Amino acid sequence: MPSQAPIVAKELTIAYGDVVIQRDLTFTVRMGEIFVIMGGSGCGKSTVMRCLTGLKAPSKGQVLLEGISFWESSQATRDRIARNIGVVFQGGALWSSMTLGENVSLPLHEFTDLHSREIRDLASLKLSLVGLAGFEDYYPSEISGGMRKRASVARALALDPKLLFFDEPSAGLDPVTSSLLDDLILELRDSLGTTMILVTHELPSIFSVADNCIFLDGETGTMIASGDPKRLKNESQDPKVQAFLTRGDKNRTG
Amino acid sequence: MTEATDNALAPCELGFDRPDQETLVVRLSGSWTLQNKCPSADRVLKEIASGPRVARIAFDAAAMTDWDSGFLIFLTRVIDACSKDGVAAYTKGLPEGARKLLALAATVPEKKGIGKGAIRASFLSRVGEETVDFFLSSREILDFIGEAFVAFTRFVAGKARFRGSDLTRILQDCGIEALPIVSLISLLVGLILAFVGAIQLMLFGAQIYVADLVGIAMVRVMGAVMTGIIMAGRTGAAFAAQLGTMEVNEEIDAFKTMGISPMEFLVLPRILGLTLMMPLLCLYADLMGILGGLIVGVGMLDLTAVEYYNETRAAVSLNNLWIGLFQSMVFGVLVAVAGCLRGMQCGRSASAVGDAATSAVVTGIVSIIVATAVITVVCNVLGI
User: Containing domain of residue A130, as a range?
Assistant: First the structure.
């Protein structure tokens, strides 16, 4: 396994027009870890993820993916890097005109020379990895929200990516389904060694899966804490971080 | 919120006591609800201003039977005005629920500068912004056309990536499934042209020329224009809504993050599909229009079907047909580009999808009319 950090953000500033969402973000995601980008609603977590996945250019700074400065590379290099990235969007973002099988097979058809039969088998395997064996011929509209999320994970895993991004994986899911998805994330990391980056504000998910995290503050547009979330909960002196990470305790006791 | 409901419609009343010179007690009774018009806060303010200087006001709501948000509005106005005048407001005599809600509303102070009024720009500034937006939007359109052209050249070179099944489905959507509406509209346009022409031509006994009028009009211009307008409303809007919904659902982002170009995978088959189908639909519309003229010629002008056919055949040249088919192909490109452009520009809300569809139809129809004018002038200059 190469020792190079799969993601390094250097002094990243992201803005929409004149409105700066986050400024001077510097952090490193280590190989094989589950890294969480957390913060309150509207602080720019998803925007940072869009910047890391090639959907939004930063206004300043660098994103190094596998040591290559992504936004300063040619389109061909970006497309090549993109094939090593899988993204699970908030709503699943499955292609609604295709069946689950077709959703998973499309990247394989596009970027591999495999025979149709092998592609079909691979798609079935990926779907079975997320507990959706036998659902190849179903359309996204015919399955539940939790199943759509899992199918989206299967699609993101199609090309065996080195990096897997999740945007609000628990959004819209009940606590049990959400917890099952957390288990799936851990199992996939442990069995495939994929580096995972999660954008979430769900405390149970954060504490159950995260190895490392950064905390974004929407008011100042900066990163105000980083590290192991359990350690941050116990040791951080920042009142915003404390208020965020101990919210669950307050709700339980209050 | 309701403190008592047994006398919900009791009229709300306002009274005042002055237990000492500096204190005003506001007595509240009856039902203070939105349905039961509450007295104005101005009455309290007038009472404060009328007598000796008031340093504090208190409330006595013992006789109040019922209250809702209408009462809270009254209270907020009174307390705000008192606060501005330096009069202390004691809320102890108010119903407990009302006190809690007042405290809740005051917990988070209003953020300065976030109101819409605070960012209202001047007329000149708005004109400037609109102008900049116009240029940015023009640039976006040019970018899109450029990208679509690059995708097309990759298709010609055999490098474009899209699913053949998608193209087949689009060909079906734009072709066979459009036939009923194209039939109806073209037949009726042919009928209308023939009726209008017949009334004038019958004055000179030249009703046979209805065949010329309908034939040339349909084949050269009207068949293509009517098909274009139908497809702008039907297929252009559908393209915009499909791509807009995909944008809202992040499906287009999913393509981008996988390194699959949405321009090749989604836009190119739509442009190809409509561009290929439009000339065929136009040819069909021409025939239906001529059939409409024939119905009027045979039914109203006592012409035989053979006479009408022979006159049409003599009048309509191949040039007319080629011009009509060329126009229809241009319209196909314009309608498809307008639909896909608006779909890809769609925002991230449900209303944005509706706006994209509307905008696609308007852009499609306007561009068809402009293109017709340009092609007509060019043909005139070239003498064809």
Answer: 32-52+90-253
Of B251, B259, B260, the CB nearest to A93: B251
CA distance A88 to chain B (A): 8
Is the CB of residue B119 less than 8 Å away from at least one CB of chain A?
A: no
User: What CATH number did the domain enclosing A208 receive?
Assistant: 3.40.50.300
Task: Select from A87, A113, A163 the residue whose CB has the most chain B CBs within 10 Å, as the one to mutate to test that interface.
Answer: A87
Total domains, chain A: 1
Residue A39: how many CA atoms within 13 Å on its side-chain side?
25
Query: Does residue A115 form part of some domain?
Result: yes
- Determine the residue of chain A that is closest to B257 in CA distance: A82
Contacts of A53 in chain B (CB under 8 A): 257
- Decide if pLDDT at A253 tops 90: no
The strand ranges marked E within A102-249 are 163-167, 195-199, 212-217, 222-227
Average pLDDT of chain A is 89
**Burial letters for A34-59: b for 16+ Cβ neighbours within 10 Å, e otherwise?**
bbbbbbeeebbbbbbbbbbbbbbebe
- The secondary structure of residue A72, as a DSSP letter, is G
How far is the C-alpha of B306 from the C-alpha of B324, rounded, in Å? 24
HSE on the CB side for A149, CA within 13 Å?
22
Whether residue A191 is predicted with pLDDT greater than 70 in this model: the reply is: yes
Per CB-CB distance under 8 Å, the chain A contacts of B259 are 78-80, 82-83, 111
Distance from C-alpha of B250 to C-alpha of A202, rounded to nearest angstrom: 21
In order of start, what are the domains of chain B with their CATH numbers?
Answer: 13-107 (3.30.750.24), 144-382 (no CATH)
Q: What is chain B's length? A: 384
Which positions of chain B have pLDDT values less than 70?
A: 1-9, 108-119
